[in-house]
Amino acid sequence: MLGFKIPEERRIEWFCKKAARWDPFEIRRYEEFYKRFLKEKAVPEKKKLGLKLIVISDTHGYLAFDKSRFPTFMDTVADFDLCLLLGDVTAAEMPVILDCIPREKILAIKGNHDAFDIYSRFGVQEISGRVCEYQGVRFAGLDGSFRYKKERFPSHTQYESLQFARAMPEADVLLSHDVMLSDFYRDPAHSGLIGITYYVFKRGVQWHFHGHIHKSYERCYENGTREKSVYQCEYIEI
């Protein structure tokens, strides 16, 4: 038996069975999963996807308060293929956005401050928990945030997010509201989700777009996936 290596998926299954018995609001124990069970990371393809995107996140009503802001932003955009809504965009802002962007060009996921029916009310396509293809590019969605309080809002426990992500097919781009859980701990509301970590590292997505932390930046994860954190409105080419 010397040198026998247990396949990673079997080790992940063992971890999930153990995690199912933990406190559903657990955070710290999942660092073990990140450090020990996700060592074999899928490397994404290096190719240009050829899409021009409008990405909106965490506007929290501002686009309705200042109704000229979004049209002014759109005046700076010569052309775009798709608009991505990453959550925490209020119902009052949706008519402002839809005045500038056709419904059929929008893919959306909910944030932790959103109503559960916000997108169905406005006829906008929500993709949380599934994969949607647009011009040959596959988008996967994982909504909400870590369930940092015992109330009903778009959210997941760490265990739920892991099971959610493991069930989703492969995609080129992951859309999430929250960040991935890592060894950089912020606070319970912004700790991130292990399901996002799993999907990025095991599916090998080329891009991961998220909001939630109210800061815009771009970087590469250790497997080569490009992370883009979006705050409010951005034009991005991928």
CATH class: Alpha Beta
* CATH fold-level topology: Purple Acid Phosphatase, chain A, domain 2
**What's the domain count?**
1
N- and C-termini, Cα separation = 47 Å
- Poorly predicted regions: none
- What's the arrangement of strands in the largest beta sheet? 5-6-9-10-12-11
Number of helices: 8
Instruction: Indicate the multimeric state.
Output: single chain
Q: Helicity level, as a percent range? A: 10-25%
The percent range for strand residues is 15-25%
Write out the CATH superfamily name: Metallo-dependent phosphatases
| Total number of beta strands | 13
Mean model confidence by pLDDT: 93
Order of helices and strands: HHEHHEHEHEEEEEHEHEEEE
Which structural class best describes the helix and strand composition? Answer: alpha/beta
Bulk shape: globular
Characterize the main sheet.
Answer: 6 strands, mixed
Using only CA atoms, what is the Rg?
Answer: 18 Å
The CATH architecture term is 4-Layer Sandwich
